[in-house]
Amino acid sequence: MSVNRMILNETSYFGPGARNVVSKEFLKRGYQKALVVTDKSLVKAGITEKVLEVLDTEFLPYEVFSDLKPNPTVESVKKGLEKFQKCKADVLIAIGGGSVIDVAKAIGIIATNPEFSDVVSLNGTADTKNRSIPIIALPTTAGTAAEVTINYVITDEKSVTKMVCVDPNDIPVLAIIDTELMAEMPKSLAAATGMDALTHAIEGYITKGSWVMTDMMHLKAIQMIFANLEKAVNEKDPEAINNMGIAQYIAGMGFSNVGLGIVHSMAHQLGAVYDTPHGVANAVLLPYVLEFNGEACVPKMEEIGRAIGLDMDALTPKEIIEKVVQAVRSLALSVGIPEKMRYLDVSKEDIKMLSKKALKDPCTAGNPREVTVSDIEKIYEKAY
Ligand SMILES: NC(=O)c1ccc[n+]([C@@H]2O[C@H](COP(=O)([O-])OP(=O)(O)OC[C@H]3O[C@@H](n4cnc5c(N)ncnc54)[C@H](O)[C@@H]3O)[C@@H](O)[C@H]2O)c1
Ligand SMILES: [Fe+2]
Hints:
This protein folds into 2 domains: 11-181, Rossmann fold; 187-383, Dehydroquinate synthase-like, alpha domain, CATH 1.20.1090.10. It starts with 10 loop residues before the first strand and ends with a helix. Helix 4 packs across helix 5, helix 6 (187-206) runs parallel beside helix 10 (278-293) and helix 10 (278-293) runs antiparallel to helix 12 (317-334). The strands form 2 sheets. The chain has a 6-stranded parallel β-sheet with strand order 1-8-5-4-2-3, with helices on both faces. By secondary structure, the protein is of the alpha/beta class. Helix content is 51%, strand content 10%. It has 14 helices and 8 strands. It is globular. Bound molecules: nicotinamide-adenine-dinucleotide and fe (ii) ion (FE2). The site of nicotinamide-adenine-dinucleotide has 32 residues, from helix 2, helix 5, strand 6, helix 6 and helix 10.
């Protein structure tokens, strides 16, 4: 028997229009001024505005920082921190996908733990002493679940590495999952971020540290994503979009507390080296990694099959793995994800270098099957 820890948001709201609570919560918590963290595309698309108009209705003071890129960098964090310090805010409101929420987390942590202002020393499990500046997170993708996780991912441009920073002090105090903010995602983004959520749910379900409470969350998330992703992406069905917003959050409640596996270790390298969108990298690699990992978790693979409505009776372990892998592959294809890594502008000659880096990624420790650098090379090659 082991001791398990769960860390979740203090408060969270869900559903279309949930953003309207932001001003009430701001006032109730006695905040004076916000730095809104978002990105330029979201400002241009009018999505940031949907939240700003709620703040404007109550004349709440804020300034906006939007100078960051997807797969955000140390430089993005430093610029945001400078803006935060200049504008003298006491709360961060993050409106965006994982990139935006992760930058807000890094700003919030450094603002209260200035000894980490080089950013790179936050890599891994940094020993911060103080809670972050309070963060209110409104995700616009479905998604990374960065609004409920204790992680943030920042690219160190110098070492060309995605730093996975794990720190309970960074969890947003308030998460507002307003699925109207996700409704206008372009199809490719909805597909990629939805497949990221599925990867979280599957890797979290089979990871080494999984236990009954996170199993409950991950299995439910897997079932919901299989039932809703295609409709949300291809038909823009409002109920399916809402269900995807909730499902990705449920997956986040789980994986944030137990970790992931080598789909993420390998995907992080594609993000760091080629700027591949995180969800696309995961989606392409997921079936190949499951083929490898399956033998270490056959009973759980069988449960995944049942959760998504497959007939799993009287199958050999090999058939169980194949059936689940096939279902994952079909789902990815149905939402337009490419089947092979070679379509992602990845150079085959880099596989050795990528494999060495992936082995060192913090997510590797959670993988259900022991893995060597040559195993990772073989998986990349198969996926290529
Ligand atoms: N903190 C965590 O726990 C965690 C978990 C998984 C991934 N991540 C990280 O999150 C980042 C990826 O985040 P993401 O996948 O949410 O994408 P993103 O935040 O990188 O956004 C990708 C693009 O989509 C745009 N966009 C976002 N929402 C939109 C909307 N509703 N409509 C139109 N355009 C929209 C953005 O402006 C951006 O250009 C990666 O850096 C990844 O490593 C973090
Ligand atoms: Fe992810």
